[in-house]
Design goal:
Layout: E1 3-11, E2 20-25, H1 33-43, E3 47-52, E4 61-66, E5 71-72, H2 76-90, E6 95-101, E7 104-113, E8 116-122, E9 127-131, H3 134-144, E10 158-161, E11 166-170, H4 174-178, H5 184-194, E12 198-204, E13 212-218, E14 223-226, H6 230-242, E15 252-259, E16 267-276, E17 279-287, E18 289-298
Parallel strand pairs: 2-3, 4-6, 11-12, 13-15
Antiparallel strand pairs: 1-2, 1-18, 3-4, 4-5, 6-7, 7-8, 8-17, 9-10, 10-11, 12-13, 13-14, 15-16, 16-17
Helix pairs in contact: 3-5
Keywords: Isomerase
Pfam families: PhzC-PhzF
Active site: 47
Amino acid sequence: MKNYNLYQVDVFTKNKFEGNPAGVVTNADGLSEHQMQQVARELNNSETAFICKSEKYNADMRVRFFTPTTEVPICGHATIGAQYAYAVEHDLDSQTIQQETQIGILPVEIIKEEDDYKIIMTQGEVSVEEPLKEAYVVSILKALKLNKNDLIPEAPIAIASTGHSKVMIGISSNNTLNHLQPNFELLKEISKEINCNGFHVFTVNLGNDPLIHGRVFAPISGINEDPVTGNANGPLGAYLVKYNLVTTNGSSLEFNAVQGEAMNRTGKMGVHVDIENGAPVKVQITGTANIAFRTKIEL
């Protein structure tokens, strides 16, 4: 038996019970994969992160991510939450942590500000695909109970990824966004067909801050709706650049994204995209967090 340090961290907000809750175990060595899955199921957050020792010479730690039903390769909000809890637990100064994940070793910057932290996560390899075939578009619109008039005309429905892909669906109305009631079973079937785990429905509010309002649905991963999603808003930044939907300075794009409003768990993150020759090449997200509770669990 061993005592494990267990946290619930509300990410992308400084207010308790807002943003996206992540479970975190900061000393997970000794837990089996089955036990990790059990802990994630018990906490029932969209993801729980488990910090372990890494066997890679160039990594400071290994982090594994579990939804209530399955392990996933990477998670944005749970990375922010894990590194925030770890920084608080160890009273870290500003530094960069090399985090081993299933998609590779990624740098995570811990920025100490007075007695608190913000976390900058560099995401994985950037990929923005060509628009989905019309048959898939029709199915997605049916599942989301939208029609083509709801879409942003210049924004094709396409998959984007920085390690954990999402379908990008731009619509023109925040009111429509906040009243979506998807058919989750149909979204599951579409996910299987296109090999993509989630759907990011968003609006682009040019001239306003935040630029983006969004909702993310990932029922294939056991998450009907995720409150605030780093692995959706990060690749969305790359998508916006790829399809020239916003003005950039030629070398980068920065914006804020808000999510979770329809769930009363509003959170905000910063997104930064590096651009070379008109193409997105690197994505970072920045977020704050707060610890809702911490305890120990004996297993």
